[in-house]
Amino acid sequence: MTQLQVILAVAAVIGIAGIVLLVALVRGRGRAGKTTGLPAQTPPTPAGGASGAGSGSDADAAESSPGPLGGLSVDTVEPDLEAFAPAPSVERPESASGRLQRLRARLARSNTALGKGLLSLLSGGGLDEQAWESVEDTLLSSDLGVEATMELVSSLRTRVKVEGSHDEETVRGWLRQDLLALVDISMDRSIASSRVEGRPAVVMVVGVNGTGKTTTVGKLARVFVAEDKDVVLGAADTFRAAAADQLQTWGERVGVPTIRSDREGADPAAVAFDAVKAAAEMEADVVLIDTAGRLHNKVGLMDELGKVKRVVEKLSPIDEVLLVLDATTGQNGLRQAEVFAEVVNVTGIVLTKLDGTAKGGIVVAVQRKLGVPVKLIGLGEGPDDLAPFDPEAFVDALIS
Asked: What residues form DSSP beta bridges with 258?
């Protein structure tokens, strides 16, 4: 055999060996690939000790166990635990009709001075001028306002003079009629919450600092969700730290999206505009826009509120402007209401904290001052402690 033939024979042997090795590698990879969809098996932890990550641990041994060829490691895929995580639960708010009965009892407990005080005075007999002055003082102390107080006293004087009856049930009937007339049951207290001409209803919520404005927006979203409305929230309070986070949390609890800016101090008008635009794209029923709390006597801040309104109206009419007032501020709240009404054309009032030291007469006073109805009342800290204002239930609670 020549030297050339020897070289060719050796090359052929080497080539055949290489092919065999390559085939073995491919088959080994194929078998290893079939195991990648299986979760790694973790051995039980010995009693009295934690599983470690040392070089001789069972976990390391499992990850580097020999493959079919002895030195080939097999990769494993960890299970995706997030895919099996339970979805966050979405609350189902209490219906507005259901909560009214529960709130009525609270209202009766918090306004005993007006109802019981008047009944005691008027059914006691012997109403002289001093007694009538006490009636006036009781009404004024309930934040009813001077004008409404004079009207009510005049009506009661006439009834007593004509009818001459002073028993408590008769007086309660008189009071009920006169108070219903003052509260004005003819006012439209409905709230825009349905699509209008193919677009979402737009509700803007305004108020001074500390009235519970952002909380009211979140609670109002719950009222609408209970009515099976598709709601979008707009976090246009960009001046207060964590206001957007607070509103988003309210929304997440009932499955409502929140449109917000991640930049503190962003232009509130731009956020409000984006919220209305997003609501239209989602074909929502209503969009609730939370605005920054502002002092009514700060001209610059009130101008900013007017800007938000103008920018939103470039995209859609504003169907509702709700002014949130703290009922415990009494007559001071009326001045706030007047200034806000001049800037944004308030269409309805939300009275919060009516279950505390607030006097029921503020309902009459604020309606008379603005000529717009009280539409919602807050009677507690619970998520469903906001309810549509029912004039008859309110008056019955006062004189119960």
From this structure: 233
